[in-house]
UniProtKB/TrEMBL annotation:
It is a peripheral membrane protein. One of its GO terms (molecular function) is GTPase activator activity. Transmembrane segments: none annotated. It is found in: Endosome membrane. This is Arf-GAP with coiled-coil, ANK repeat and PH domain-containing protein. Keywords: ANK repeat, Endosome, GTPase activation, Metal-binding, Repeat, Zinc, Zinc-finger. Pfam families: BAR_3, PH. GTPase-activating protein for the ADP ribosylation factor family. GO terms for cellular component: endosome membrane. InterPro entries: ACAP1/2/3-like (IPR045258), AH/BAR_dom_sf (IPR027267), BAR_dom (IPR004148), PH-like_dom_sf (IPR011993), PH_domain (IPR001849). PANTHER family: ARF-GAP WITH COILED-COIL, ANK REPEAT AND PH DOMAIN-CONTAINING PROTEIN 3, CENTAURIN/ARF. The gene is Acap3. Residues 98-193 form the PH domain. Gene3D superfamilies: Arfaptin homology (AH) domain/BAR domain, Pleckstrin-homology domain (PH domain)/Phosphotyrosine-binding domain (PTB).
Length: 206
């Protein structure tokens, strides 16, 4: 009889299922109420997010534009500082300011390390001089070009090199291109010839 009575308590299962469904309904109802209260805030946040996306895109374009301008300035500086057009490659032994030719060259140091340094060289007053910066005092490499010879150097670790040799020392220089090297060699040779023409008698007396 007890077993029969227990078997007839199927309503307890239905009651448990109904309680479970009611709990689920309450849970989701409360969740909906909470999210419904957050709806205005989420809409406001979505609007702000859209504006942030727009601002980010504008900022990205501005940064890309600035980067392009910087690249152009760097390229322009590099071309201005390191490369030469045809007018700069040419030399003039009869220049009004006395400067036959000028421009950047790499000079090999005479120390044990044989380091290369970039200097602003010029040929003027029958001398080969250079400056570390354009406003620095001139450093004389060769005092009298009439006592010098100039020749290209191929057996060296760098390209476009040439050497100016005087009775007391030699100076190894490097140009930025083959065209520049030939221009510098011709400028030195022309300056030597010009110096001989200007004062041949005094030179032979000395």
């Amino acid at each position: 009889q007890i077993n029969v009575l227990q078997a007839k308590k199927k309503f307890e299962i239905l009651d448990a299922m109904l309680s479970f469904m009611h709990a689920q309904y309450t849970f989701f109802q409360q969740g909906y109420s909470l999210l419904h209260e957050l709806d205005p805030y989420m809409k406001k946040l979505a609007t702000e997010l859209d504006q942030l996306v727009i601002d980010s895109a504008v900022e990205k374009r501005e940064m890309e534009h600035k980067h392009a301008l910087i690249q152009q300035r760097v390229t322009s500086f590099y071309l201005q500082d390191f490369s030469y057009d045809d007018s700069k490659v040419e030399f003039n032994v009869d220049a009004p300011n006395g400067v036959v030719m000028e421009g950047y060259l790499f000079k090999r140091a005479s120390n044990a390390f044989k380091t290369w340094n970039r200097r602003w060289f010029s040929i003027q007053n029958s001398q080969l001089v250079y400056q570390k910066k354009l406003k620095d005092v001139l450093t004389v490499v060769v005092e009298d070009l009439r006592l010098c010879t100039v020749k290209p150097c191929e057996d060296i670790e760098r390209r476009f090199c040439f050497e100016v040799v005087s009775p007391t020392k030699s100076c190894m220089l490097q140009a930025d291109s083959e065209k520049l090297r030939q221009a510098w060699i011709q400028a030195v040779q022309a300056s030597i010839a010009s110096a001989y023409r200007e004062s041949p008698d005094s030179y032979y007396i000395e």
